[in-house]
Amino acid sequence: MYAYIAKRLLVAIPTLLIISIFVFLLQKLLPGDPVLAMAGEERDPEVIAYLREQYRLNDPVVYQYFYWLGDVLRGDLGTSLRTNQPVTELILQKLPVTIQLAVMAMIFAVLIGIPAGILAAVHKNTALDYLANLVALSGLSIPNFWLGIMLILLVSVHLGWLPASGYYPFFVDPLRSLKTMVMPAFVLSTPLAAMLMRHTRSSMLGVLRADYIRTARAKGLSERTVVIEHGLRNGLLPIITLSALLFGDLLAGAVLTEQIFTIPGFGKLIVDAVFNRDYAVVQGVVLCTAAAFILMNLLADILYVLLNPRMRASL
Amino acid sequence: MERKTINNNQAMTEGGNSMKKLTCIGGALTGVLFSFPIMAAELRIGLQDDPDVLDPHQSRTFVGRIVYAGLCDKLVDITPELEIVPQLATDWEWSDDASQLVMDLREGVVFHDGTPFDAQAVVANIERAMTLPESRRRSELASVDTVEATGDYQVTFTLTSPDASLLAQLTDRAGMMLSPEAFEEMGANFGSNPVCSGPMRFVERVQQDRIVLEKFEDYWNAENIFIDRVTYLPIPDATVRLANLRSGDINMLERLAASDATAVQNAANLTYEEVVGLGYQALYVNIDNGPRADNPMGNDNRLRQAFSLAIDRDAINQVVFEGTQSPGNQPFPPSSPWYNADIPVPERDVEAARALMQEAGFERLEVELQVGNNPVQMQMMQVVQSMVAEAGFDVRLQATEYTTLLSEQTAGNFQLSRSDWSGRIDPDGNLHQFVTCEGGINDVRYCNPEVDALLDEARTFTEPSARKERYDAATQILQDDMPVIYLGHQSYIWAMDEAIEGFVPSPDGMIRLTGMQIAE
């Protein structure tokens, strides 16, 4: 088991390297000179020359990459071109925000998607099933930004129940923090909840047709025990992998959600950085996101092994 | 400058008034009973962007300047009528040839860290702005040769060449005074904990989230500051910014979307303010910047005039900006004292435009127009596209992301390019660097020695009428050559809680806290 984890972690290193090279080159391909954006409206040539020198933009791209890589290996992700703040500091500041958002969204998605999927499967082809499908389809097709703005108008402006946007750190004021995060987390969770619902439904339908379910029923177990204890446990396996993969979607979705609700998280950090051609920030954020993604998938695989004894033998 | 204030509760009935009186008495009684401790007056302002580094010598964003209006005092300030008035300097005098400026300074002023403000502090500040490698203020102070303390509270600027626009530069970031002790200690990192001498001192900043300032008790004009705490919140989406105002999460916002103007004007409990700014909206025509300049539009001013004549500037203002902007044809808005009244904003004249085109030898002409890829700009240029089509111009719009647009303009990779200039207080700032042969941002590479001579000469006078004569003459030539097609002037629009009193809209778009208060 430990050997397996170590192997997976080792494989992650070249993956991260390739990703970093790819992102670095992609950024260089972007049109638009970062120094022009930074020099101010007057574009003083002296300032431009100084900035180019300072950020080593006069050197060949390959050199620039290796400078960056060298710094990263020393634990330094560079400083933001826009605000002079160290990228590591920015990431540490923004990461908890997005993690809170993602975790809350995941909780919403699981709480909505899985029960809805089970209900739809158990009551296949009834009004309940159709309703669940309809809601799921809406969740998938309604764009985040539209739902976000509509919820702000309804919940914050008309009803005055929740703050319209912003962020409070959880450990400073938990209640206020949860209040500001409920809406964005819900918005972010809708497509996920929908996908979880659809997959839980189909997975459960497959399981509920299995022989051992028939046996369980024949033994006279209550329908509840049959579905939850025997059905769900097996039906959940593919859902766990899916959830880990969806975590990536969650991070991508956070970019838009954070933009709408003005949440100072990772997504907002990277979007602003791309528009300002803040290379160091983009590079740092992508590296961290990729690492998080790899880690999440590894966690899912480990969880999979823990839940499914048959998998252990194959390691 | 135009100014419009609409307060929805102004139209209150008599009954409403007596009701209000009763509430006032009740409020006053409650106030007496519960006035200890007094509720701190907190202002929460929604900004369109997150400011960059909070060092006036290094920063370059408009929203950064809004924060400085609370944080950092300047040597001189401007009134809404663009008159230069004392702030940290109480009095000043130009030498006859505008090559020396002597300023007397306010006594008894301290920085937020307790460092006293005096002539030495001014010298240290100006020198830092001129020599710090990261400084974005060098071009603004380019004409300064030396600055000396000629008394404990007197400084003398000696210039390399006459420059009457220097005083106007000192009304903004170049004239902001930072604590020398703080910047000597922090160096280029001053922005992480800025120390100035304004009405508010810095408390904290969380990037992309908030900037918090609180009242500086030792401020020289503290008796006119009624706000105890200000939080600036960057909320880029205009709809969300307004939603925050409506839900009471913020009590003021800057740059309301023009499409929301009517809604705010009609909303109970909100106040609407607008003022025409100092900048302009323009189309830059590539005259001589690289091979792409070699095209009929770049080569023949009659085609540029035809293009301009085919545009209905008032219609653009009505359709795209709900009438909130000011149509224009010069680098200064018609409401500015520098506007050349002999050349009024032209009426649309398609026939005249066609005639000019024919004279230049064209029935139809294909033109490529580069525009920022945001909805408002695109909409504005689509309107222009259909207007000029009637005169014979087949415009192809090229939506370009903003940073890329800047690079393309500098590189000369454009035929027509659309961008805004935020505007400067001194007329020189809206013209000299764009249209003189060696101008720093003359991306169209227009060069006319006559214009150069007029604009250089205008710098040597401190007397406004003598300067205006030169600007009028230059504007006249530019109307004919037309390297820049001016379309209009941006307005600054604010929306706020009706409880906010004492806010004075200024054409520079700043939110000055002096005199502002929140009524209970």
Automatic annotation (TrEMBL), chain A:
<feature type="transmembrane region" description="Helical">
    <location>
        <begin position="99"/>
        <end position="122"/>
    </location>
</feature>
<keyword id="KW-0813">Transport</keyword>
<feature type="domain" description="ABC transmembrane type-1">
    <location>
        <begin position="95"/>
        <end position="304"/>
    </location>
</feature>
<feature type="transmembrane region" description="Helical">
    <location>
        <begin position="181"/>
        <end position="197"/>
    </location>
</feature>
<feature type="transmembrane region" description="Helical">
    <location>
        <begin position="281"/>
        <end position="307"/>
    </location>
</feature>
<dbReference type="GO" id="GO:0005886">
    <property type="term" value="C:plasma membrane"/>
</dbReference>
<comment type="similarity">
    <text>Belongs to the binding-protein-dependent transport system permease family. OppBC subfamily.</text>
</comment>
<dbReference type="GO" id="GO:0071916">
    <property type="term" value="F:dipeptide transmembrane transporter activity"/>
</dbReference>
<dbReference type="InterPro" id="IPR035906">
    <property type="entry name" value="MetI-like_sf"/>
</dbReference>
<feature type="transmembrane region" description="Helical">
    <location>
        <begin position="236"/>
        <end position="261"/>
    </location>
</feature>
<keyword id="KW-0812">Transmembrane</keyword>
<feature type="transmembrane region" description="Helical">
    <location>
        <begin position="134"/>
        <end position="161"/>
    </location>
</feature>
<dbReference type="Pfam" id="PF00528">
    <property type="entry name" value="BPD_transp_1"/>
</dbReference>
<keyword id="KW-0472">Membrane</keyword>
<dbReference type="Pfam" id="PF19300">
    <property type="entry name" value="BPD_transp_1_N"/>
</dbReference>
<protein>
    <submittedName>
        <fullName>Peptide ABC transporter</fullName>
    </submittedName>
</protein>
<keyword id="KW-1133">Transmembrane helix</keyword>
<keyword id="KW-1003">Cell membrane</keyword>
<dbReference type="InterPro" id="IPR045621">
    <property type="entry name" value="BPD_transp_1_N"/>
</dbReference>
<dbReference type="InterPro" id="IPR000515">
    <property type="entry name" value="MetI-like"/>
</dbReference>
<feature type="transmembrane region" description="Helical">
    <location>
        <begin position="9"/>
        <end position="26"/>
    </location>
</feature>
